[in-house]
Amino acid sequence: MLEFFVAAIVVALAPGPDNLFVLAQSATHGAKAGFCIICGLCTGILVQTGLLVVGVSALIAASPVAFFVIQCMGAAYLVYLAYKSFQVRAGVVVNSEFGVRNSESGVRSSELDKSQSLSARRLYLRGIIMNLTNPKAILFALSFIPPAVKMDSPLSPSVQMLILGSEFVVATFIVFGTVALLAGAVKKFMLNSPKANRNLNWFSGAVFLFMAVALFVL
Predict the structure, then answer these.
(1) pTM of the predicted protein model
(2) Residue 17 lies inside a defined structural domain of this protein
(3) What is the pLDDT of residue 162?
(4) Is residue 67 assigned to a domain?
(5) Into how many domains does the chain fold?
(6) pLDDT grade, residue 12 (50/70/90)?
(7) How high is the mean pLDDT of the chain?
(8) Burial level of 26, CB count in 10 A (0-12/13-18/19+)?
């Protein structure tokens, strides 16, 4: 179990769509938003583990049609997120569920522009959808978790896979949480720069488009 946890830390550190997603969103909306997304991603991992245990993941991986449909859903969602990011207004300095401050007035507004604000619930759902619409996450679960199951263990393979999946969630939360804090610090540093805020949103949109293409070519 300890060896698997170390391996999970290494895997979480490797550049991939999920940590890029956390990086882009934390840099754009702040560390708190990043943690909401991480909770969603971790929930997605738990769901993936459950699908793995009951055999649904193997069925999806074995079906080219099902795999392609999930690819298209994931790419479409990422393109939608990119579109929302490119819509950002340069005059909005803080753009998150925690409030919007206009760069000209410097006054914090209690009424958020719906096109710019993101609630914690929406961010959490973003994380879940991001994970569940990534077909490569299914393949990863199939190739990473079952090989770590020990057939001579007193625990059943299903219980072992649930434990291993939970370990992976903890490792992911630690690594991605660090990414969110660092990226959130960048956001806080650039708080009073409308241009920097706009550039961060465009960076986030570019990451989403890259990830959408990567679902098909990488």
Answers:
(1) 0.76
(2) no
(3) 92
(4) yes
(5) 1
(6) confident
(7) 79
(8) buried
